[in-house]
Structures are given as structure tokens and as C-alpha cells.
Amino acid sequence: MRMHFGVPKKIVRNSRFVESVRRLMQHGEEALKPQFVNEMWRGPMVNPRKANAIRKEAMADGTYGTFDVTTGIGWDAAWDRPQKLPSVRPFKGHKRERTREARAQRIEGLMEDMDDKIQDYRDAFVASKPETEGFENMIKNKQAGKK
């Protein structure tokens, strides 16, 4: 098998990320993890975007789950990142939906003495009208066509 910069020629044809595959062949899972060196963090040797592309290629080729260290073909299933657990909290929703029960209770409480309030309003309205007796009111009523 012909070599291309220390990587078998077959890899150069099959993968767009030759350098990333070479690092996976040399370092394995450690190439996918960031490293703490000299009191500083270094990013992973293989870019996560490129690692995901290599993983997808392995799935398409049917080599997912196995990784051949000599040819660099495939993807080891142990290299996959654990997925996040879904949130169990319900969605926020609209404010009108969240406060519906409190509004209904408030309205029911206000409606309990509504009949008394309506009657008080009507009594106050009638009391606020001027008396129909009197010279001025009699003239106004005749001009308006009232008897």
C-alpha cells in the first residue's frame, strides 16, 4: 500500500480530513479530548466538526463501531460524546395561560357582590338626576317636546 505523508493512500481517497484521521490513528480517543498542558488548556487535536464528519462517513460506509488503526477506516462507538438528557421542565407557555386560574378566581370573587354594586350604582345614578319639578326643568321639558 502506498503511503501519503505517513498515511496509507486509501485514506487520502476516502476521507477529506487526512490529518484528523492520522491523529485518530496515532492517539485514539485522546485526540478528541482537550488537554491541560503547562497550566493551560489546549483544544482537542481533532476538531469536533471534522470528527463529526468522519463519524458520519463511517456510518455511511457501514464501518461505524469499529476502527482499523492500520488503515484509519471507521469510527469507534466509544468515542461518541454522551448525549444531553432532555429537560423535564414544561414549556413556559403564554402568560395568559399561566395566570388563567388566578384570573378566574379573582373574577369569581368580584362577581359575588356584583348584584349589590349594580343596585348601588343605579340608586346613585337616579339620585344624581335633578328633580323634575321646578320652573327651569318645566321649560326644558316643553322645549324638548316632553309632556
Q: Short description, anyone?
A:
The chain is mainly α and 147 residues long. Helix content is 48%, strand content 7%.
In terms of topology, how is this protein built?
Elements: E1 3-4, E2 7-8, H1 9-14, H2 18-27, E3 35-37, E4 40-42, H3 48-61, H4 95-98, H5 100-111, H6 114-128, H7 135-144
Antiparallel strand pairs: 1-2, 3-4
Can you offer a commentary on this structure?
The N and C termini lie far apart (120 Å). With 147 residues, the protein is mainly α. The protein is built from seven helices and four strands, in the order ββααββααααα. The strands form two sheets. A two-stranded antiparallel sheet has the order 1-2. Strands 3-4 form a two-stranded antiparallel sheet.
Largest sheet: 2 strands, antiparallel
State which percent range the strand residues make up.
5-15%
On the 0 to 100 scale, the average pLDDT is 85
* Strand ordering within the main sheet: 1-2
Distance between the termini: 120 Å
- In terms of quaternary structure, the protein is single chain
Q: Count the strands?
A: 4
Please state the CA-atom Rg, rounded to the nearest Å. Answer: 41 Å
* Class based on secondary structure composition and strand pairing: mainly alpha
Order of helices and strands: EEHHEEHHHHH
Low-confidence stretches: none
- The geometry reads as rod-shaped
User: Number of helix segments?
Assistant: 7
Helix content: 40-55%
